[in-house]
Design brief:
globular; 25 strands; FAD/NAD(P)-binding domain; about 35% helix; about 450 residues
């Protein structure tokens, strides 16, 4: 087993214990991991950030990649570029497969071991298919760049196939899109699809009228955006219906077979024909949650999230911390915190601060999440904003949503590019990233249409 040191240590005649910096290893370069690394940039510690990707991805805007509004590079930032000015930080491209709490090592796929004194695990989550994992190929989610590109491929292939289809029923199935899940991702995806079909693509085809597109959004709860106040949920539903999105609450997907989807609402079951099902319902923790539980004896909840202490550490392992979507933190109000980016950001910063205070033997209060509010965009000039003390809808909410997302993009060039793309798209109603990728488009199209 190869031992990967974070960096060569300078020669010194002083005792090693006095000169060797505290080693902090961070697994995951998402919001929690990156914000922790940045907060440790000036600390007297050695930081090693490990991720299987070489970039940080701004996941809240992935749905715009999936609908052709942005390119992946617009919302991704190379981790080495983001952290290049932190002399105490090393980035490793690697796939973590295990941890050894006794030896205090992180184990990589090729057998390398990375030692740590403090470990921060921020590997995020994935969409939950509630025991129907075989639906993943039939109803992709949008958690990664690859997911978004696959969704984009399916959306635009559906329109291309409809242009050539002569059978009216098959054509309508190709032009019917089902979005499962009425949370922020589902609402934003359904609204973006409506903008795409009824505006952007309106004059692009000759044999089909994209006004005939059906977009159906289903949600198991009794209203959309369950975490939002009821009045904002009602506004979101009304705005989507105005955009011709069919909203069905108290409705569950019970079966996906080929181009036939079965839905259940109460005791009533219906069948829908669609070639494109997109999944935005439920989130589960990454596979790292089970590894942590097995190696440390920690408990996980039903979604696979690791139950953490009030300082985000593990019981009996005070130097191992879990943050973000992987953490079940119920020390504030009794319910676990939501799996949203602001939670991960604040937790990453908190753990970085906690480690520095521990090194000085200084106490620090338990973690407390400061909820600044929630936002969701519904479409052009339409959004809902809940700042707790202020609730907004319509155009003002849409403008706030734009600037908040621009602000939280990591690199300056991303901010400029995304703002420019949005301005151009707003005035021209055009989305320039409508690419169908694949080495052989005919084979890709056949695989998509024949699979249904």
């Amino acid at each position: 087993m190869t031992n990967l040191l974070t960096r060569p240590q300078a020669e010194t005649t002083a005792p090693a214990a006095a000169t060797t910096p505290h080693r902090v290893v961070i697994i995951g370069g998402g919001f929690g991991g990156l914000y922790a690394a940045q907060a440790l940039g000036r600390a007297h510690v050695d930081v090693t950030l490990i991720d299987r990707r070489n970039f940080h991805l701004f996941q809240p805007l992935l749905y715009q990649v999936a609908t052709g509004g942005l390119s992946p590079g617009d919302i991704a930032s190379p981790l080495r570029a983001v952290l290049k000015h932190q002399d105490n930080t090393q980035v490793l491209l690697g796939d973590v497969v295990d941890i050894d709490p006794d030896a205090q090592q992180v184990l990589l796929k090729r057998g390398q071991a990375v030692p740590y004194d403090s470990l921060i695990i921020a590997t995020g989550g994935a969409h939950h298919y509630f025991g129907n994992d075989h639906w993943e190929k039939l109803a992709p989610s949008i958690k990664t760049v690859e997911d978004a590109l696959e969704v984009r491929r399916r959306i635009f292939l559906a329109f291309e196939a409809a242009e050539k289809e002569t059978d009216p029923e098959q054509r309508q199935a190709l032009m019917t899109f089902l979005v499962a899940g009425g949370g922020p991702t589902g609402v934003e995806l359904a609204g973006a699809l409506a903008d795409l079909a009824y505006s952007t693509l309106k004059q692009d085809f000759r044999a089909i009228d994209t006004d005939a597109t059906r977009i159906i959004l289903v949600e198991g709860m009794d209203r959309l955006l369950p975490p939002f106040p009821p009045e904002l949920s009602a506004h979101a539903e009304a705005a989507l219906k105005k955009q011709r999105v069919e909203v069905r609450t108290k409705t569950l997907v019970t079966s996906i077979e080929g181009d036939r989807v079965r839905l259940r609402s109460g005791d009533e079951e219906t069948e829908l024909r669609t070639k494109t099902v997109l999944w935005a319902a439920g989130v589960k923790a990454s596979a790292m949650g089970r590894i942590i539980a097995d190696r440390t004896g920690s408990d996980c909840d039903r979604a696979g999230r690791v139950i953490v202490e009030a300082d985000l550490s593990l019981p009996n392992h005070a130097n191992i911390f879990v943050v973000g979507d992987l953490a079940h933190y119920a020390h504030q109000g009794g319910q676990p915190l939501p799996g949203v980016a602001p939670v991960a950001m604040q937790q990453g910063k908190y753990v970085a601060k906690l480690i520095q205070h521990r090194l000085k033997a200084e106490p620090i209060p338990p973690f407390y999440y400061r909820d600044a509010g929630s936002l969701a965009v519904i479409g052009r000039n339409a959004a809902v904003v809940n700042f707790n003390w202020l609730k907004l809808t319509g155009f003002p909410a849409w403008v706030i949503w734009l600037f908040v997302h621009i602000f939280y993009l990591i690199e300056f060039d991303n901010k400029v590019v995304v703002m420019t793309q949005w301005m151009w798209g707003y005035f021209t109603r055009n989305q320039g990233s409508r690419l169908i990728t694949g080495r052989d488009v005919d084979k890709v199209e056949a695989a998509y249409t024949d699979a249904s």
